[in-house]
Design a protein that fits this description.
about 130 residues; alpha+beta; 5-stranded mixed β-sheet
């Protein structure tokens, strides 16, 4: 009986630890330096690119957040891409989940990336680190 209880407690502890690590990493913007070829018009200063899918609940909230930021910050554009209809681009950029957000500088270079729903303050801070903003 004691061995079973210890096994359950260890399993619960590991599951909790995994959940906390996963929650901490989801939606965090991470630095990147990748040049991309884009088939849409870039923002004058920056572009927020969101990969979404039809049945993704966090995608709707992310769209709202990014649209608000783009409206607040002059020269920033928000572009939403349907991941299901752009599979070649999804594979090329290694998009593994939706929403995924890319922050592009004025030249179209990917400078930040977040898998999951980012916080509005993190998006604004990422834009603030770009030259000219």
């Amino acid at each position: 009986m004691t061995t079973g209880l210890i096994a359950v407690l260890v399993t619960l502890g590991l599951a909790t630890l995994f959940g906390l690590v996963w929650q901490r990493r989801t939606g965090r913007l991470k630095e990147q330096d990748v040049r991309g070829e884009w088939d849409f018009e870039l923002g004058e200063r920056a572009t927020l690119v969101q990969f979404s899918s039809a049945f993704c609940a966090p995608c709707r909230a992310t769209k709202r957040i990014l649209a608000e930021v783009a409206e607040m910050v002059e020269g920033v554009r928000h572009v939403e891409i349907d991941a299901e209809s752009r599979l070649e681009l999804v594979r090329e950029l290694n998009i593994l989940k939706t929403p995924t957000v890319l922050v592009l500088d004025a030249s179209g270079r990917i400078v930040q990336r977040a898998a999951g729903q980012p916080r509005k303050a993190d998006v604004i801070a990422a834009l603030g680190r770009l030259p000219g903003l």
